[in-house]
């Protein structure tokens, strides 16, 4: 097949057998019927596909130093089809609350925060796969010593079998853009290459991801999670293939929620405005804990908030319309995890953006 000068292929969904059209060069596609993701096997005999040059994006004008952020919230309200494909509640509010936190608590300039949400009229601010790719490049491009960058994603995540032997658990994680049915998700390999590897000495990136299957979505070498004894412990997730997944000297930290994909996901009545459980616990913990709180204390506080909030939102922020009163666990988060490009003592190292 050929569409607009680009060849496409057809694959069958590995979960429900629906026939899916895949753009050339993409490694996975989301099913329009069951919303699950299917790996696209690449033919090694074919030449690599060169993607056409994308239209330039109107980036925020800010100094190339110090603090900038990309905040992405996707409800999929106008994009979903088929069974099991209901719209999410909360992601757009998540972005608004995160922006408020960064500006009020950590001194980020609003001009240096790029927001991509699927309720925007400007096509360059919609969270399509192409726009998210460009936003990730903008975030870390030209980073230098002293830069602090934040990447926040609130939406749907996915998991597909690994095909290059660089995952300890045998699965790649992914985030789903608003056009994931047409263009496919963005796999952790690409996210790592775009956001993690360019970080130079003295530059730091914090990512907060509110999506299912997101605990290792940055493909960072080390994962910290709670042991059976209740202590936070590091696990070595460096690929057995020897492929480097670290930075170029900087620090990358991911705060994401653990979800086994089987937990019950709460449904929030449409009459309520809501916020995602993972985002809510992060913002609330930051607000409640003193400045300079350690990473260990932060994620412990997040877990307590997830457990004890009772589904009620207690955040104060700039959300117009109906008051945000409910926490929607659309990602099925069970507890927060932390992963990093380097090992450190989470009970001693202070958290700061």
Automatic annotation (TrEMBL):
GO biological process, one term: proteolysis
Pfam families linked: Peptidase_C14
Residue span(s) of domain Peptidase C14 caspase: 66-340
Residues making up the signal peptide according to the UniProt record: none
InterPro entries from the UniProt entry: Metacaspase (IPR050452), Pept_C14_caspase (IPR011600)
GO CC annotations on file: cytoplasm
GO molecular function, one term: cysteine-type endopeptidase activity
Family, similarity comment: Belongs to the peptidase C14B family.
Name assigned to this protein: Peptidase C14 caspase domain-containing protein
Organism field: Paspalum notatum var. saurae
